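Work Package 3 (structural annotation) set out to generate three-dimensional models for the target panel prioritized at the project kickoff. During this period the team completed the workflow that converts sequence records into discrete structure tokens, so that structures can be stored uniformly alongside our sequence database. As a representative example, we reproduce one entry of 567 residues exactly as it appears in the project archive.
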Amino acid sequence: MELDEYLMDISILITGQAGQGIQTVEKMLAGMLGAAGYNVFATKEYMSRVRGGANSTQIRISGERVRACTGRIDILLVLDEGSVNRISVRIKKDTLVIGEFSEGTAGKNERVGLTALAKEIGNPVFANVIASGIILSLLGIKREMPEEYLKKAFGRKGEEIVGQNIKALEKGYENGERILKSNSVPVVRPSGKQDKELFINGTEAVGLGAIAGGCNFVASYPMSPSTGVLTFLAGKQKEHGIIVEQAEDEISAVNMVLGAWYAGARGMVTTSGGGFALMEEGVSLAGMTETPIVIHLGQRPAPATGLPTRMEQADLNLALYAGHGEFPRIIFAPGKIEDAFSLTQKAFNLADKYQIPVFILTDQYFLDSYYNLPDFTGLKTENGKYITETGNVYKRYKFTETGISPRGIPGYGGGLVRVDSDEHDEDGFITEDMGIRKKMVEKRWKKLPLIEKEVLTPEYHGEADFENLVIGWGSTYHVIKEALDTMGDKKTGFLHFRQVYPLGSEIKKYLGRVKKAAVIENNYSGQFADLIKLETGYEAGKIGKYDGLPFYVEDVAEKLTRFFRGG
């Protein structure tokens, strides 16, 4: 249906039970819409069960770049009527609701018996292809494109399966055309520039960044939402020479990675909060032995098991203070998918350079969100740059002006590479000499001023003469940015941190002139706001969300309006 006015974007939500193929719908629609010239953003939320429950996937399409989740639903596709209750508050009178739903559901309703239609074709599983056909039909995508997609996707399964999928697609288009006769469907203009771009999620970006960083060993005990990084690298192990080990537990995983670095490899452990809690002794071991390690920590709601498939930003303090004793570290928190790539690569180089733990903090929302973007690959690894060939007289913990000792590896030179978890002297022998102890502590901390010189500058958006300031870190980047764009408040700037420790001095330049500042983060206590106060003395306002879901653009706009205007 032709409309005179085109919307900036359309928000489509697909909801149903686990096992009904919602991810298949997401993958198919995103691929087809991207090929049709749209910018696409997709994210999911799901319950911690293999089958049943109620899951949903949001897909936003636009002629402009779109990279944040919204609470708005323009088209709701329901695969199971029991899945509507959780998102009913988001259904408005103009929401077009399609599929299998109960009486009394709000919105403009178009009932389609997806399961019954799928059974007619031969299997209930075809409901997801029917659903995809409905959406593609509503958006005016010609049928030839998804037909070719299905032939490629299912060609290996034989002509019968391909034929059934195409028949399901036809059923979807038939129903879509019927719905269009009685409904006005929002329309956006495609830009026609996306077919050659990448369409990846945060998980893949972290994995690609690890490869770019020279990662050749990864160990992990599976734990959502971090497991995707492990499985991604497992799929690339032959191509890139990576040893992938699913350890028997998290303690084994972290110590395997430390052993890999000792032997000259570049290793990473990928985990989540509960798993990382078991790794803390290993982190402290890295601090004492000055062994590099890269730790990807995918955050999720806690304490204990919490909501294991949801999102939260409540492990900043865990990463910041993990490990008994005192030793320096670096913590990155990417907000953009391309940053996940570059920061993970950088994590390997800095861990190697300073012989310290380096963290990449993500969360379920960030890892499971997709959008299209230009190719960002091409970084060069610095693997081997910081390894020293040892001589016959080699001191692993030699006192130096920088605090960085020459790091040798066994077999590369004639020296013995001795490390020890106890306090030690320059040769690596255990010592209880208090003078040496004092010098070793100071030696390890000498690295921090050097690290601080490499702190990444926070990214600022807004006018130069701002009065108010919004501060964010990690996965809130795109949501905050879009919310401020929609508000149109020229007096409010946005400062985003992709490195949260060390914090650096740049923030003081902003806080020194601001009237009012607020930190937005997905936790209850305001962990990053507290860190800012600790480092600068400035006490910013706290805007938190901790129900297991990410901020929506509308959430942020409403909360910021109330905070800055006192409404």
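DSSP finds 19 helices and 20 strands in the chain.
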